[in-house]
Amino acid sequence: MSMIAASAGISHGLLYHYFKSKDELFTELVRLAMEGASGGIDEMFDHPGTVIDKLRHFLQDAMNEEARLFFLLIHQARASEGVPEEVRMIIGNYSIDWFVEQLKPLFLEGQRTGEIASDDAGQLIAGLLTVMSGTMILHASDEENIPLLNPDHLLRLVLAPAHIQPL
Amino acid sequence: MSMIAASAGISHGLLYHYFKSKDELFTELVRLAMEGASGGIDEMFDHPGTVIDKLRHFLQDAMNEEARLFFLLIHQARASEGVPEEVRMIIGNYSIDWFVEQLKPLFLEGQRTGEIASDDAGQLIAGLLTVMSGTMILHASDEENIPLLNPDHLLRLVLAPAHIQPL
Amino acid sequence: MSMIAASAGISHGLLYHYFKSKDELFTELVRLAMEGASGGIDEMFDHPGTVIDKLRHFLQDAMNEEARLFFLLIHQARASEGVPEEVRMIIGNYSIDWFVEQLKPLFLEGQRTGEIASDDAGQLIAGLLTVMSGTMILHASDEENIPLLNPDHLLRLVLAPAHIQPL
Amino acid sequence: MSMIAASAGISHGLLYHYFKSKDELFTELVRLAMEGASGGIDEMFDHPGTVIDKLRHFLQDAMNEEARLFFLLIHQARASEGVPEEVRMIIGNYSIDWFVEQLKPLFLEGQRTGEIASDDAGQLIAGLLTVMSGTMILHASDEENIPLLNPDHLLRLVLAPAHIQPL
DNA sequence: GATGAATGAGTCTTCATTCAT
DNA sequence: GATGAATGAAGACTCATTCAT
């Protein structure tokens, strides 16, 4: 907490004025990260163009430098022991399954248009999300040695072979 | 250290009998994990069959439940501050670039046989490795909610479109 | 550290608020002790009277109850292994030789006036300092059984025979 | 205990075969040191020559390199807290007062012959012993910087002025 | 006699948290 | 709002001691 306060240029005493405890601060950050993530999905649906255009936009939006630390945060929240109950609830609400449900309509449409591979949509989505998160976490922990993947590369996991383009 | 010792059913005192410090224990684990990883590559080359067969074997070997914690360990070693100097050296020796160099001959052959996509081999390998590691780390941190990916799914990142099969 | 904190009536946590480590606290004490010692020499030169008067004042000043623990501290610093580098430097700066040099002018004058024995001044000073320190350390460790020596008794080590008085 | 055993070239297990505990080993060493000290006094009385000859022999015997660690040991025993009860008893038996009593006959004879200063014999002896011990302890803890005093120098504390010789 | 695996009390140190000012 | 002195639980590490072999 003292280090966080110092980073923010305030005393740790004042940090406790804004957040009752480290758990509360952590919970707040997780909440923000999750809202950002679901906001990204809404934005994707508003994006013009084909299914592939929307997906590419979603990936580009999620896989930028700013989003890095959010992924790391969620990872910590998922991976650590002794995480506050409230954080576990937030994470539960935004489970992989929840994201799968959000994206399923898009993928089903993509399969109708022939853009998306004709495998089980849920499996494709879960795979894409897992791989995207994993990539971001790796990059976030060691940016020097682990480059961000080209979103088009990741798309190969879900595209119909006919739509795969050179990198 | 006391928790580790308790997990092993010994006193922390005895743990210090075998490892001079937490750093030394950690270093030893990282060393083991890294040797396991490079061993997996050797084994892949000995595996019979096509390039795809070899790669599938490599992924299945790496992405099993036992290997889970090794990925998590390496991730910790890469991501954390205050990691012992020796660990940083070991990790430096087995960089992403090193793995890329090991796998490049196989990928070049795969491109000759038409099994592997005709993009830059280095980029394909780095992408596959990143995604594989990221997936394992996510799964290792939260096995209940994040299923292991089907290795064939990951292979889509590097296969020539003609060789992509339904999942 | 906990015992020291308890002696001071504070928690060990607060002690660490003021001193980053046991080494730093120890270093600070050694520094203070050494400054006190060299201050005693300055004061001696300002003291009025003959060479013997000055020396007697110096000994009385150094050999009081308060100074006791300082001698013990310096002794620990000299005698112990694993003493912080900075402490070794401070002690090196205030070596026996350094004190000898400080006192030499006074002793040479004393030899001119006939108050000080006509042996090698450096040897006389080193002997007096050693004996004074040793006495203080013994007294500090076991005040009940080892009485403080009368400074006049110590002076016999350096006085010309003609100036020796009954105790 | 492990370090002591290693110095002796045996395992710490075997050290416990010979000494039931660290306290017992320490007690044994203190006992030996004290017997050596009182043996030195007996030997002094057997030494031929004048009172000064005997005293000089005593000092030379006590202030050699071998005796160094014995003085340090006794000092530790006197100075430390938590010293075993038996050690405290041994030290109590060989108190300063006990040594004073042992040496008093010699000093009284020396005062008759005019060799020893005509101050209170007890005070002279206590002073000489204190100074001798202190010197040895200092030298033992830091032999490089603190030279052993010339025994003749120490004798000045107790000699009649007429018998003081150049160093 | 001899070894070293095994234990646990005690020590230094960190850090989240509280609270008087 | 803002500060930092103050606390204590918890973790890394050491070392005297025991005991099976």
- What number of domains of chain A? 1
Query: Using only CA atoms, what is the Rg of chain A?
Result: 18 Å
- Percent range of helical residues of chain A: 55-70%
Distance between the termini of chain A: 44 Å
The CATH architecture name of chain A reads Orthogonal Bundle
Class by alpha and beta content of chain A: mainly alpha
Protein name (chains A, B, C, D): TetR/AcrR family transcriptional regulator
Keywords (chains A, B, C, D): DNA-binding, Transcription, Transcription regulation
Pfam families (chains A, B, C, D): TetR_N
Domain HTH tetR-type (chains A, B, C, D): 1-37
Outline the fold blueprint.
4 copies of one chain form a homotetramer.
Chain A: H1 2-8, H2 12-18, H3 22-46, H4 51-62, H5 68-79, H6 85-93, H7 96-113, H8 121-141, H9 151-155
Helix pairs in contact in A: 1-2, 3-4, 3-5, 3-6, 5-8, 7-8
Chain B binds a DNA duplex (21 and 21 nucleotides) through helix 2.
Overview of the structural elements:
4 copies of one chain form a homotetramer. The first copy, chain A, has 167 residues and is mainly α. Chain A has one domain (21-163): Orthogonal Bundle (Tetracycline Repressor, domain 2), CATH 1.10.357.10. Chain A contains 9 helices and no strands. Chain A has helices at residues 2-8, 12-18, 22-46, 51-62, 68-79, 85-93, 96-113, 121-141, 151-155. In chain A, helix 7 crosses helix 8. The first copy, chain A, is elongated and about 60 Å long. Chains in contact: A-B, C-D. At the A-B interface, helix 5 and helix 8 of A face helix 5 and helix 8 of B. Chain B binds a DNA duplex (21 and 21 nucleotides) through helix 2. Chains A, B, C, D: Residues 1-37 form the HTH tetR-type domain. Chains A, B, C, D: InterPro entries: Homeodomain-like_sf, HTH-type_TetR-like_transc_reg, HTH_TetR, Tet_transcr_reg_TetR-rel_C_sf.
